[in-house]
Amino acid sequence: MTADSGPRIGGRPCELGALVGYGAVSQVYELGGDRVAKIYREPDPARTARLENMLAAFRPADFVQTATGHALCVWPEQLITDAAGAVIGYAMRRVDGPPLSTLFEHGSRLRAFPDKDWRFLLAVATNLAQTIRVLHDYDIVVGDLAPSNVHVGPTGLVSLLDSDSLQFRHDGELFPCDTLTLDYSAPQLVREGAGEKTFATDRFSLAVIVCQLLLVGDHPFQGFPTEELEAEPSPETNIIYGITALTNPRAVELPDDAIDLAVLPGPVRELARQAFGGGHSNPESRPAAEEWFAALDEAYGSVRTCWRQPSHAYLVSQEDCPWCARARAGYFDPFPALAPAAAPVPLPPAPPPAVPPAPVLPPVPRVPSGSSARTAPRGRVAGRGAAPTPRPPGPPSGASNRTRVYVLLLTIILALVIVAMIAAL
After folding, report:
1. pLDDT at residue 391 above 50?
2. Given a cut of 60, is residue 342 above it in pLDDT?
C-alpha cells in the first residue's frame, strides 16, 4: 500500500503499525505514541454520521480524570479516511490492561493480577460504578455494558472501550446502541433479544457485574432452578424469570463450591436485592450508579487483612475470614498465598579425596549432544511457588584446612611420580 492510497488523518497520510486487536467489524492497529487506530472492515454511511456527531458532541478530555490523567471512556479523537475521503475508522487513546472478564476466571485472574486480593475486586467495582455515573451525567447510555467492553489497569482503574456503540443524543438526534450481551442485560432486553436501552437497563447490567466481581466470578444468576422451566437453565434464563439466590435462595440450587453470598457488604446486598427483586419488573426502581458507588466506596474503607493469610482480605463486619473458611471446608482458595519460586537445591560439599597408592587418570566424561549440565527450576503460574529450600551448612573451618593439606600432598606425589617416569625413559 502506497502513501497515496493508504489511510489518512486530517488529509495527511498515516502509517498503521502492528495489529493489536480485532473484532467482528473492525481491527485495531498501533498508530505511534500512545494512540491506536480502529479501522472498520467496510465503510458505512450511518457509522460515519455517528462518529462525526460523537466528535461534535464531546471531547476525549471530557472523560479524563484531571487528577490521574486516566481515561474513564476512550472517546474518538480524529477520523481516519481512505484516499477517496470515505471514513474507515478513527484514532483514539491507547489503553493497556486486560478486559474485566479476566477477573471472572480463576486462572486468568491469577496470571493477570497475581498479587491482588478481594480488596482489588472491590476497587474495580467502585471505579466501574463511578465511570457509569459520569456517563449518565453526560446523558450517555452504555446500552451494552459487558465485561468484554471494560478494561482494567494494574491499580484497579477501568476504561470503557468501544465507545462507538454508546447511545447518545446530539442536536436532537438519537444515536442508539444496537449491540447486546444477553447474560449481562436487563430482563426486558433478554426476552426479545433487543429493545430500548435506557439508564435503567444500564443499572441492571451494572448490578450484575458488581455482584460477579465481588463474588469472584460467580454470576449472580447462576444455578439450577428448583422448579422445572420450559427453557434450558442458564444465566439468561434465570434473568428472564428473575431467579437468583440473592432474592430467593429456595428458588435456585447453587454449585457446592459457590462463593458464600455473605462476602457481599450489607448495603451492596440490599442494592442487589432492589435491582433483581423489585427492579426486575419495575425498571425505575433499580439503584442508580451513584448509589452503587456510595455503597462500594464505604465498603472499601471497611476491609481488613487476614492475620493468618496476608493474601486474604474481607470485611471487618465478618467474624472470620471467608477465604480461610473455604479452604478448611475443602474448597479452592481464590486468593492463595503468595510465595517465591522454588530455588534449586545446592549440592552438599564433596568429601576430602583419599590419597591413592598410584596415580590413575580418570577418563573424561562425555556430555550427550543437546543436554545441559544444569536445568532451571520450572516456576508456577504468575511466579508462585514453594518456599526456597534452606542451604545445608558447610564444613567446619578445620575440615577445610585438612582438605587443602590433602590436595597439596597429592599434588607433590603426582609430581614425583611423573619425574620418576621421565627418568626411567
Report:
1. no
2. no
What is the extent of the structural domain holding 13? 1-95
Asked whether the beta carbons of 265 and 182 are under 8 A apart, the reply is no
Pair 82, 226 in one domain: no
pLDDT in tens, 255-313: 999 999 999 999 999 999 999 999 999 999 999 999 999 999 999 999 999 999 999 99
For 114-136, what is the mean pLDDT?
97
What is the CB neighbour count within 10 angstroms for residue 74?
Answer: 22
Instruction: Quote the radius of gyration of the chain (alpha carbons, Å).
Output: 32
Residue 419 lies in a domain: no
Would you place residue 204 in the very low, low, confident or very high pLDDT band (cuts 50, 70, 90)? very high
**Contact (CB, 8 A) for 188 and 201:** yes
Q: How far apart are CA 59 and CA 56, in angstroms?
A: 8
- What pTM was estimated for this model as a whole? 0.78
For the beta sheet containing 35-40, the strands, ordered from the edge strand earlier in sequence to the opposite edge, are: 12-13, 8-9, 78-81, 87-93, 35-40, 26-32, 19-22
Give the residue from 95, 115, 130 where a domain finishes: 95
For the range 187-194, what are the long-range contacts, defined as Cβ-Cβ under 8 Å and sequence gap of 24 or more? Answer: 187/239, 187/240, 187/242, 187/280, 188/283, 190/236, 190/239, 190/240, 191/240
When pLDDT is averaged across residues 8-35 and rounded to a whole number, the result is: 92
State the Cα–Cα distance between residues 422 and 256, nearest whole angstrom.
84
Domain boundary among 37, 67, 95: 95
* 3-class DSSP state of 151: strand
